[in-house]
Amino acid sequence: MHSKSRLSALSAGITAAVVLGLAGPAAADGSFDPAKENCNAANVVTPGSTAFVWCIQQAQKSGEAKNKARADFVKGLLDMLVNQTGGNYNIMIFDIKGNNAFGDPWYVHNYEENLQNVAFQTDVTYRDQTSREDQTYRIWIFYGGGSFANGFDGGWGNWAFYGQWSRTTREHNWAYPPGTSRPGQRYNHTDSVVDFQPTMVNGAPSGSPADPGRPASPAVPAMPIEVPGVIIGEPATPGVPAKPGVPATPGVPTKPGTPAKPDKPSGSGRPPVGTPVHLKTVSNLGAVATDDAAGSTVIAGKPSGAGAQWTFQDAGGGRYRITNALGPDLTENTGTYLANVSPWKGSSAQKWEVLNVTGDTYQIRISDQDCLSYHEDNKTLGVWACDGSKEQQWTITR
Q1: pTM over cut 0.85
Q2: What letter would DSSP give residue 93?
Q3: Domains of the chain with CATH codes
Q4: What is the per-residue pLDDT across 190-224, written as a single tens digit (0 to 9) for each?
Q5: CB-based contact 123:137 (threshold 8 Å)
Q6: Cα separation of 174 and 188, whole Å?
Q7: Which residues of 358-370 are buried (b: 16+ CB within 10 A; e: fewer)?
Q8: What pLDDT is recorded for position 27?
């Protein structure tokens, strides 16, 4: 986030089936269970096949039927795509544009993409029942390398990606695209840039994990094919106005049980207990609570003042309570998957595992899959899928 499969062109028969809608089981409330309906790793299919398109469509319908927030929808969609492709492809999901509750254009997100050997591309429009806003997500499934620059915010609600990747940041000057309130005006932004490595080279596995072979020339329909909520085969369009948006950060391990990165925490060593410390990011910023009020965010900011000081306390079971000098405790917001502070209640969202990576550097995680994550300066920290990256390593200093 693996069986061998070949790409094939969409035939006229398949196209007709897609346009008319695909028959498939679903519960009375419109939801579906991927494991029961063959949208899982045991039933790997070719990207762009009828079954593949149907699973995307059902994921969208099911999410809306269950009133899932868009962040939860994106998380579930990414998991399903990884399973459906056997983990053999790089995957990018990005929120390119949105409409407000009245159906009027609300935003268009800037991005730059240079993704190679795209086997499948589609747009999915998702209606968030809570905000009553429509978000259009663009999906790329590809086996080559390339890069993707996010000119907008991170977080599960905005983008998600999977595969063999590394991430950096850059300073970039963008123009607001057409369809926004300030078209043509310029703004500066610290972009998250994801660089992908090929999952396949000449049909042979590339690096780790091992991936099955892929055809040299993937077949993509020449014209868009419309499905309710899904458009298949739209040509890739770098830059604006279309714009993608993942986990700035979430990544998912490329193979179950195997870390995507080599620097997995060893689990040895303990953080200092009972002493105020700073939590430093790879860019030497600190984890900083913005206020002492319940629900206040924790950002990557200048490590100064009481908001940047934290004290570890033993919470039992190998976990820690991490208390800010302003009073409240580090807490996972389970609705947004972001980090905030709240008064201590002893909940599972406040008990953190702290695993030593090397020296004074640690991985801080709420579970073995969800880690405290830095993705952009002066932005809220995420609690996103553990991927072993430097952005999920925290240096503890006094």
Answers
A1: no
A2: E
A3: 12-232 (no CATH), 278-397 (2.80.10.50)
A4: 889 999 999 866 555 455 443 332 232 333 332 33
A5: yes
A6: 6
A7: eebbbbbbbeeeb
A8: 39
DSSP line for 107-153: EE--EEEEE-SEEEEEEEEEEETTTTEEEEEEEEEESS-EEEEE-S-
Contact 193, 148 (CB under 8 A): yes
Angle, alpha carbons 283-160-262 (nearest 5°): 55
Sorted by sequence, the CB contacts under 8 Å of residue 246 that are 6+ apart come out as 74, 78, 92, 93, 94, 150, 154, 155, 156, 158, 159, 160, 161
Kindly report the number of other CB atoms within 10 A of residue 129's CB atom.
Answer: 15
Structure letter (DSSP) for residue 19: H
Tokens 């519960």 sit on residue:
27
- Per the structure block, which two tokens stand in for 104? 């009027």
The residue assigned the tokens 């499934």 is: 141
Beta strands (DSSP E) in 49-117 are 90-99, 105-108, 111-115
Please give the Cα distance from 81 to 93 (Å, whole number).
10
